[in-house]
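Lecture 7 notes: from sequence to structure.

We start with a single chain of 112 residues. Read the sequence below before looking at the structure.
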Amino acid sequence: MPVGVSGDIEELQGRATLERPLTDGAEDISSGTASELGGAASWTLFLGAEGAVEIEVSLSPDGGTTWYVAPESPVAFSEAGADIIEMGYDASAVRLEASDATNVEAQIYEVV
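Now the structure, written as tokens:
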């Protein structure tokens, strides 16, 4: 037999999100750009490129002292476009480096 419950909801709990840009709009990241991550075991990388370019994605387990190239690398664009990559890694930092001076926009979205 179903049981009914009535009352006031005092507090809704949800998951916090962090959104952080890796670039200031579209810019040249051929010398690399990096950011620490907020401790999420899964996060999403949003990339937009203004032309053909390859972007190497590296991850660090120790805040940026040691870097490892992610299996998703390189993210290749044959022309201007965008890509969304779900990253299921528990890393402490991410670094992006483009193959040339093509402008790239990058953002990270974490659910913690």
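The chain has a mean pLDDT of 86. Keep this in mind for problem set 3.
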